[in-house]
Design brief:
Structural class of chain A: alpha+beta
Pfam families (chain A): Ribosomal_L23
InterPro entries (chain A): Nucleotide-bd_a/b_plait_sf, Ribosomal_uL23-like, Ribosomal_uL23/eL15/eS24_sf
Number of strands of chain B: 2
Keywords (chain A): Mitochondrion, Ribonucleoprotein, Ribosomal protein
Largest interface: A-B, 28 and 31 residues
Oligomer: heterodimer
Subcellular location (chain A): Mitochondrion
Helix content of chain B: 40-55%
Distance between the termini of chain A: 83 Å
Order of helices and strands of chain A: EEEEHEEH
Strand content of chain B: under 5%
Distance between the termini of chain B: 63 Å
Family (chain A): Belongs to the universal ribosomal protein uL23 family.
Chain lengths: 161, 254
């Protein structure tokens, strides 16, 4: 069975009739969480990669993205990643890494998506008199103390005098 | 009135938070309610208000809603690369009980999107082998969602009790399993009756005769441990009373 999300806009009674097939399960507050991940292998520009719970289907992913995030979805393909049960802990018990499902979503309307760089280098300017400023100053002083005398011209301390 | 309307609008569409730079005093009042943990920081992100992102953190106004929707899987761009991102206290059940059903429904989706964003961030930090900025946000969101669930369940329970008198939404009954233990069996939906269900008929909801003595023994064990616990408590209280008699307390007062 696939699940249709009920979001703020679509409480129309027309949506609820299903003349063919089994009754479709509708839930009010979905507990599914989608994680957008950076693709390990190079993907086409319109493909977005998600990690989804094992119980979700392709139809669920489509409805989720369209209703909650209003993202136009053309196609969804899924696979289940089996993770190892071979690793052992300090008690020599086997530790299972949990399995997960990966969904490759292709966007409609010729949209593209590039996974952004979320950790750009930033020049941290702490405000005057704050704790971080003092810590930074302290670390700077420590580093300065560890450095050898620049007048020795790179010669190590091993050589006396 | 307009401020109330504005706050309602911002409540309706979380995307408005990226757009509306409402600098009215009432909006900031709403954003910095007393139960936020960061009283001193004016520019903190408030978890316990409608606007997850305080209006003062917004960039220049752009008049369209968030484009493509996939941007909502990531934080505001000015928070990328920060070591810590400030956030307020999680919602409490008391605060959530005040809200109407529509508001709770919308808030659920706000929490859901925030959780998705945080999970995306967590996965990316693991990938890049960097520390996640402010991981306590995840716990806050999870707790808020749990509390929202509790409140909705409370409302459903009370409605059902009033309308039908049923205590539980899902029917069930007390049954005894093969090990002699009594448990609450919850019914499932089947397209066929139980006497045509071969897998169900293999399940035994009675204890075999050779298990019956052990039920009595386990009951005796449980009663023994209960009585021992009560006796231990009484003994402790008695020894404490012997160590600290009431007379000395009264004597020291005078």
């Amino acid at each position: 069975h696939h699940i249709r999300m009920i979001s703020e806009g679509s409480c129309d009674t027309e949506d609820w009739r299903n003349d063919l097939g089994n009754p479709q399960l509708r839930i009010f507050r979905p507990t599914f969480n989608l994680t957008l991940v950076r693709p390990g292998k190079e993907q086409p520009p319109d493909t977005v990669q998600f990690r989804i719970p094992l119980e979700m289907t392709k139809f669920d992913v489509r409805n989720y993205l369209e209703k909650i995030y209003s993202v136009p979805v053309a196609a969804v393909r899924t696979r289940i990643q089996y993770c190892t049960n071979k690793k052992r802990n300090h008690l020599n018990q086997r530790v299972k890494r949990p399995d997960y499902k990966v969904a490759y979503v292709q966007l409609a309307q010729q949209q593209t998506f590039q996974f952004p760089d979320i950790f750009p280098e930033k020049d941290q300017k702490h405000e005057e008199g704050s704790v971080e400023e003092m810590q930074e100053k302290f670390m700077e002083d420590e580093r300065q103390r560890q450095k050898s005398d620049p007048r020795r011209g790179g010669v190590t301390e091993w050589f006396g005098l | 009135m307009s401020a109330a309307v504005a706050s309602r609008l911002t409540a309706v569409c979380r995307q408005f938070q990226r757009v509306v730079t409402v600098s009215s005093h009432t909006q900031t009042q709403y954003a910095t309610r007393a139960f936020s943990t960061f009283h001193s920081c004016q520019q903190s992100r408030m978890y316990d208000s409608w606007c997850f992102r305080s209006p003062m953190n917004n960039r220049a106004v752009h008049t369209s809603c968030v484009r493509k929707g996939l941007e909502e899987f990531f934080d505001l761009p000015e928070n990328w690369g920060e070591q810590t991102v400030k956030s307020g206290a999680p919602w409490t059940a008391k605060q959530l009980r005040v809200k109407s059903n529509e508001d709770l429904h919308k808030l659920w989706y706000v929490f859901l999107k925030e959780k998705n964003m945080l999970l995306t961030l967590e996965q990316e930090t693991k990938r890049q082998r960097l520390p996640m900025p402010s991981p306590e946000r995840l716990k806050k969101v999870e707790r808020s969602m749990k509390r929202l669930d509790t409140v909705v369940e409370e409302r459903e329970d009370s409605l059902r009790l009033l309308q039908t008198g049923q205590e539980r939404g899902r029917p069930g009954e007390w049954r005894r399993n093969v090990f002699g233990k009594t448990f609450w069996y919850r019914f499932r939906e089947h397209p066929i009756p139980w006497y045509l269900n071969s897998r169900y008929k293999r399940r035994r909801f009675f204890e075999p005769s050779h298990v019956a003595p052990y039920t009595r023994l386990s009951l005796e064990k449980y009663l023994r441990s209960k009585i021992r616990k009560e006796k231990r408590e009484k003994r402790n209280q008695k020894s404490l009373a012997a160590m600290f008699p009431k007379k000395t307390a009264l004597a020291s007062d005078h």
